[in-house]
Amino acid sequence: MSEPVPPMAVREASGRDAVRAAALAVFAVFATNGFVFASWAARIPSVTDILALSTGQMGALLLVIAVGSLVAMPLTGTIAERIGLANTVRLGGFVAAVAGSVIAVGLLMASVPVVAAGLALFGVGVALWDVAQNIAGADVEHRLARTIMPQFHAAFSGGAFLGAMVGAGLSAADIALPVHLFAIVAVVLAVVVVVPGWFLAHDADPSPPASAAPQGPEGTGAGRRGGALAAWRHPRTLLIGVVVLGATLTEGAGNDWISKGIVDGLRASESAGALLFGVFVGAMTLARWFGGGIIDRIGRVAALRISMVSALIGLTAYSLAGTYWLSAVGAVLWGLGAALAFPLGMSAAADDPRHAANRVSVVSTIGYIAFLAGPPFLGFLGDHVGLRLALLAILAPIALALLLAGVTRKEAPDRAASPDEPGTPVMPASPGQPAPLPPDSPSGRTP
């Protein structure tokens, strides 16, 4: 006769199953988000043709997405606290689905104002969806105690790769973009209604024991109540935001302009441009899928520096190459370089679980503002110097991210800075416990 299973073992097994289910749900939500975004981005040349817009005018239209996101992002933390992360993703998906329908109708009417209204709604939906899914991903990463955020973003890139291939195929088959968008709306609604139900419950304001509470404005009861404002005043969080800003400019420019740049600059077909976009996102997907293990081995700082150097080389090659195939090589290096910085920034912002939600929200907001607002600026610049040359402008923020890579060094909770930073004392270990290793040391990282 078998021995009864202890209740604690049952609870632990149940907890592991819940974390596994939550991880799969976050993967699915990220992938759907990427699929939707890339399906739209791969067919931007079609939008330009339908509405008879110049590159600069298309840039102005894309800027409307950023405006919608700017309105929604500061409210996302409050919304998530009131209705939960799952319902925030559902709300964002529903708004994005409505936006897709409005855009499709606007394209059928060839109406710029109607398309602009749809894009503003799309920006609102993307903001709610993106911030909430990153916080949900950080919750899973903490429970698993290993680096998994890049894989969630690999799911986004994988979804984007599939979306780009679908976009290229539908473009080659001369399927009207409005029909394409209506189909995407159905996919979004099916996923966001069901999948977020498996997210982990997120405690936005965990209260640690008094003896463990750190000093400073975020460690007090009043500081926790004002956590969102405190996160915007936290220097390390803001610097991580600057790093992520450079990375998201790199990724956003690729998503919006890599296909049109090759169509305009090298007279490639629209389907060839969409294919090159797929190559870019495919490279990002591979780097993100295997990036977690690399980060755990060499540390965040080294991984980020290698990424930024790859982005610098790849973007330069894409912009200056005289042939499609050389530009494709540049697109691969560009995609590999753009892959890890954003998820790495999310993990760095979430180092202290008690402040993870607010800090992830801050870094996400900074990053997505750049992700959405940067490409329209490049469109304006492209009207004057050509789109591929205009893309060289983002070499400057990439270089800045390279210089600031050290701020992503792993920070232990309850400390304002890492122990290997000058002038910061290392906290002694508790009796009977080993002394802590440097946070960015491969042997000192969470297994």
Structure description:
With 447 residues, the protein is mostly helical. It has a single domain, classed as MFS general substrate transporter like domains (Growth Hormone, Chain: A, Up-down Bundle), CATH 1.20.1250. The protein contains 17 helices and no strands. Helix 3 crosses helix 5 and helix 10 packs antiparallel against helix 14. The protein is globular, with a radius of gyration of 22 Å. InterPro entries: MFS, MFS_dom, MFS_trans_sf, MFS_Transporter. It is a multi-pass membrane protein. This is MFS transporter.
Give me some keywords for this one:
mainly alpha, Growth Hormone, Chain: A, globular, disordered C terminus
